[in-house]
Amino acid sequence: MIKKFLSSLFILSILTSVNFAQTAKATQAAATKTAAAKQTIEVPFVNRVLPNGLEVIVLPDASVPIVTVELAVRNGSFTEPPELNGLSHLYEHMFFKPNQANLIFQCEMALNAGGLNDYGRRVCAEPLRLKPQIGSVAYLNNADQLSVYNGTTREEVVNYYYTTTSPYLSSAIRLINDAVRYPTFDEQELKEEIQVVIGEIDRNESNPFFYLNRTVMDKLFYKYPTRKNALGTRETVLSATTDKMRTIQSRYYVPNNAALVVTGDVKAEDVFRFAEESFGSWKRRETDPFKEFPLVEHPALPKSEGFIVEQPVQNVLINIGWHGPSIGKDDAATYAADVFSYILSQPNSRFQRAMVDSGLTVGADINYYTQRNVGPISLTLVTTPDKAKAALKAVYAEIAQFDKPDYFSDEELESAKTILESRDLFDREKLSEYAHTLGFWWSSTGIEYFRGYHRNLRATSRAGINSYIKNYIQGKPHVGVALISSEAQGQAKITAEDLIGK
Fold first, then answer.
1. pTM of this prediction exceeds 0.85
2. Do 317 and 244 share a structural domain?
3. Which of 28, 235, 295, 364 is deepest in the core (most CB within 10 A)?
């Protein structure tokens, strides 16, 4: 599923009151009762691919007169060699800067107000030259209706979106079209955004949990760590130039590597028409960027290794990571991973009873992060220095039992599938957020994977889960990392061998 590999939100979630367990059990019971009545839940989106390769995905819902227009691009750290690490993220920051259409709008206003001086003629020469290509920019009179916007960069997708009211659908589509096709990459703007991104890096590095996540990922993907670091490094971000921005644009910001996702109060045919009118002339890239710049092959871990990361934290955080399945190579295992992770996360599961109810940990979690280029499996424990060694011994004992027939019941299996479906239905209630979900799946898996997600989720069997466990977890090389203060380590005396179950 779409989860952060490690998040401080997990730390907060495990500190909630015991009412959570009661609520979860009630939800599970209610969901189980509906399982027979609702065997599968389809996501009612429609899609169409324009002649230039741009995929248009529409999820209509007229319940609220709100629409979200998103551009998803197959870019992110999985495309980044060391010299470009973090520049997909910087590019995201530059996307919302004034583009040539904005400049045309300003230049035309100046012309109508009395003409251009020498400076104005120099500044306006290029945008006015592009006027026949860009067309009317009158839609920018609606710019104040398009003020809710943002973007995100992940390992395998970069997305940009505007949320507005349905009458401004076409304006939002035009705004994204002009931003992606006609950026200016102003030198001064770039310098300012470099400092903004450096500030993000500084904030992350001030958080002790950052070092746990970074160590796990760098060790799991040891040969190509930049491909799993969407934030980037201070060195590469500071080295950014407009030429490098243009390199990213020419490689990945092309219609046959992008999707337009629209959710909310729209009619699909209107969206397809507006998309064709705005994006239809966008020239496709002759060579698929992933054929010219293929994804790296992350090598398997040669052996299990443990690492201690000393940071000023109160509790002990332990993360055990494995290479999980990749979309396109073992799709069946990705569904099994989601279901198994959810079974173990339930408060009344054997795993939670052994790790949390026993008092060995404050919280325990396992998840799989869906990715095309090797999705990581992450098992996280939060414990205390005096219980850390015992918790590690216990968790490896549980891992050895994962494939046993009595580790989870048939009822737990069916309930997990039903709750996962129900959660997706709940997420659809906020379509402005669900647009990001569609963009994520389109980029990492292809939208047809997501179209069949619930059907294949329903088909997940105990045998499929056991196959996933044996192929990716039990007996497989892994990385164990403990985040602990130096004082606590003096008491706990955790060793590398403890962290890998030796």
1. yes
2. no
3. 364
